Each structure stands twice: as C-alpha cells, then as structure tokens.
Amino acid sequence: MHILFLKKLAGLFLFVLLSVQLFAQDKRVIQFTGIIMTSDSLMAIPNVFIYEKTSGRGTLSNFKGFFSFAAETGDTIMFSSIGFKKQRYIIPKDLTDERYSIIQLMPIDTIFLAETIIYPWPSKEEFKDAFLTADIPDDDYELARKNLENEMLKEMGLALANDGDMNADYQTKQLAQKIYYAGQNAPITVLNIFNWIEFFEAWKRGDFKKKDKN
C-alpha cells in the first residue's frame, strides 16, 4: 500500500515536471515594442506604464508614446495611465520572429469626483457672524434705482453743458450734414467765416463760461 502511494506520487511529480518543461518550451523571449495613442485623436500618450501582469516587469512609454522591453510569448501585457482606461494585450504564442510590434489605443477615462466645498471660516458660528456683518454691495437694480433719483438726475443735469433739447438739435444737425455730404468730401469748417462769426458771438455772450451749479 505504501509502495503504491509512492509510485502515484512519483508519477504525479513527473507529470508536473514535464508539463512545466513543455510550457517553458512554448514561451519564447521576444523584443516587444509599440506606440501608444489616444483612441479618439490618435495622439501619442507619454509616460504610460506597460507591464507584464504576473511578474510586474515592464517599462514606461517616452514622450512620443514609444516603448520597448523584453517579454515572452503568451504574456499578458497591461497598459496603465492616469486619465485613460486600463488596457490588456496578450502576446500571441505562435510567434516565429524575435521582435513583435503593436499600436495600442487607449480611450479616455472620465472620473467623476465627489463635490468638495471649501469654506474660509473654521466654524459655523464664525460664518454666521461674518455673514450678518458683511457689507453686501448694491446689485444692478439698486444701482439703477439710485441713478434715477430726482436729486441725482438734477445734479447730472447741472453738470451737462447742454440740455436735452440742445443735444437733440445738435445730433439732428450732425446727421443731416452727414447725409448732405454723403459720397463727397465735407468742407473744412475751420475755414468757414460764418462759423468764426458764430464763435465770437457765443464768446461775447459768455456761453463758454462755467455755469454756477448753485
């Protein structure tokens, strides 16, 4: 009985040893190279971690997305980079060449983070005090209301050189002059003798003196 058990154990050990040797013969060392690019715009992805899933050995892609390292046929290669979905590639077992190259595409991975609110106050009590004593600036509605107050409009009117009727008359004359001289050169008004006469008359009347706001 004991001898039979030893024979079975020896047979099992021999089977496992032969299986390991056959498996080792199937795996061949190759130079695994490639370029890693984005799947949407085909742009090179630098600093991607490329490693064999079981042993962890691997390398990083350069700034052009290129990588190269020694691997074995049948290895499961992982591609990992922040901002992209992790990818997996299995090197074929039936390769005959000593070099093998691929183009690996990586889709962008959108990560949603939980909302974080940062407060400038260390406690709710300090926030309450700061909120109640805050000097809140006027909004657009309040500014418009203040600008339309009678006293404000009166001060603004006194600061103007001309009233509303005079400004409207001036704009109308300017528009009529543009229409009259459309398509031709307008005369130089500084050489117009009538303008000079009007200027001296206005100067004598004191039209250019500052008005007393009181």
The stretches of 5 or more residues where confidence is low (pLDDT under 50) are: none
Q: How would you describe the oligomerization state of the chains in this entry?
A: single chain
Helix content: 25-40%
Radius of gyration, in Å, reads 44 Å
* Strands in their spatial order, largest beta sheet: 3-2-5-6
Number of domains: 2
Helices, by number, come to 6
Care to describe what's here?
The protein has 214 residues and is an alpha+beta fold. The longest helix has 25 residues, at 2-26. The model has no long low-confidence stretch (mean pLDDT 79). The protein folds into two domains: 29-106, Carboxypeptidase-like, regulatory domain (Immunoglobulin-like), CATH 2.60.40.1120; 124-205, no CATH class. The chain has helices at residues 2-26, 124-132, 140-147, 150-159, 164-180, 193-205; strands spanning 29-38, 49-52, 58-60, 66-72, 76-80, 87-90, 99-106.
Set down the secondary structure blueprint.
Blueprint: H1 2-26, E1 29-38, E2 49-52, E3 58-60, E4 66-72, E5 76-80, E6 87-90, E7 99-106, H2 124-132, H3 140-147, H4 150-159, H5 164-180, H6 193-205
Parallel strand pairs: 1-7
Antiparallel strand pairs: 1-4, 2-3, 2-5, 5-6
